[in-house]
Please model this.
Amino acid sequence: MGWLDRIAECNRHDLSGFLPFEVGEKRIGWVRHSLAERLARRPEVFAVGAGSAGFAPALDTPGQRTAALAGIVREWHGNGLLRRVSGELLAVGASLAEPPLFLIDRSAVQAFGFSAVGVHVNGCVQRPDGLHVWIAERAAGRHSYPGMLDNMVAGGQPAGLSLMENVVKEAGEEAGIPSALAGAASPAGAVTYCLETEAGLRPDILYVYDLELPAGFQPRNSDGEVAHFELWPADRLAETVRDTGRFKFNCNLVIIDFLIRRGVLGPEEPDYPAILAGLRPALPIDPWRLW
Model:
């Protein structure tokens, strides 16, 4: 095991099994060929050709597309194609700086291969014996990755909130961090990956924040998603990511990026250039204008 193994685990996919999903000239997702065949049976919602899929021409506004997708999500949940509906809407578009092309329930995002956005916060504590980081253990009852290790705060980016507003919200819900303190989180870039899953494709972007916390602060979960928190020295964090699979897969990328920025993982590390490049691979959506 090693750093490149962690990166590779987040980027296993084969696009030959997928058809691009486009809105106008924008390639915004990928659907499996089997799903494209299902979409073709709903011509009032979708247009499917030999080389791409998209919305029916009549659905030419964000509101119309959003309403049509809400009906599809209800239908898929009713017939068992979707096990659950999250109730949280994700904005889909080519850039966070532009109005969304439409909204869709988070539960269906992977099926369409849309790019999901998340925020992850590294909780840092400077102690006399060096840099320490707060680590969360996911609750055993969570539907995804139960019991695995996670960043102190992490969550998907819902429609209607700015990135920082979401950081403050998630920090309060997941770690009991007061808004005034959470608002001091510093943006530190982003990591990307593209992973093929049973549900579809995940060409995702995680926006990363660092939050310096007082030595006496104790994170406390309030939404039931975290079993407990532990404060780890940076060396232990590095060894656990490098040598084990204990962390939720995409958290490894956030931590590797953090360790590089803080000098824990340096240029003397074998494969250092490949590690740097692996944290931000180009995503298979076009145009790619989130940087």
